[in-house]
Design goal:
The protein is an alpha/beta fold. The protein has helices spanning 72-82, 93-101; strands at residues 13-22, 30-38, 44-48, 65-69, 89-92. 15% of the residues are buried.
C-alpha cells in the first residue's frame, strides 16, 4: 500500500492509536474502545474494550514499530489499565504541536 507518511529510519511500522475512556477525578480510566491504524500496511483496528478485551494490543509494540498518539500519556494510562505491554518507542504529537506553536497565541481547543 502506498502512503504519504515518511517512516522514520529503523522502523517497519507506524501505528496511530486513540483510546476512548472515562476517568472521574482520582480514579483509574474505564477504557471503552480503541482505534488504531498501521499506515504501512493500511491495517485498521476498531476494538470495543469490555470484559472480553484482548490481553495484548493486536498491533506490534516492538522496537521496529513507532507508536504515535496525541497526548500519549492518556493512551499509556489505558495500556496500564488493560495490563498491556508498553510500546518500545512513542511519538507524542502534543509535544510536537507545542514545539511548533509556542511562539503563537493558540485558538481555544489547541
Amino acid at each position: 500500500m502506498s502512503t504519504n507518511y515518511k517512516i522514520p529510519a529503523g522502523f517497519d511500522e507506524l501505528v496511530f492509536v486513540d483510546f476512548e475512556f472515562s476517568q472521574p477525578a482520582g480514579s483509574v480510566p474505564r477504557v471503552v474502545c480503541v482505534v488504531a491504524k498501521e499506515v504501512v500496511s493500511g491495517r485498521m483496528f476498531r476494538i470495543m474494550l469490555d470484559e472480553d478485551a484482548p490481553t495484548a494490543p493486536p498491533w506490534r509494540t516492538d522496537k521496529r514499530c513507532l507508536f504515535v498518539a496525541f497526548a500519549a500519556s492518556a493512551e499509556m494510562s489505558c495500556y496500564l489499565e488493560l495490563g498491556w505491554e508498553m510500546p518500545k518507542y512513542i511519538l507524542d504529537l502534543f509535544f510536537e504541536c507545542r514545539n511548533l506553536t509556542n511562539d503563537f497565541i493558540l485558538k481555544p481547543g489547541l
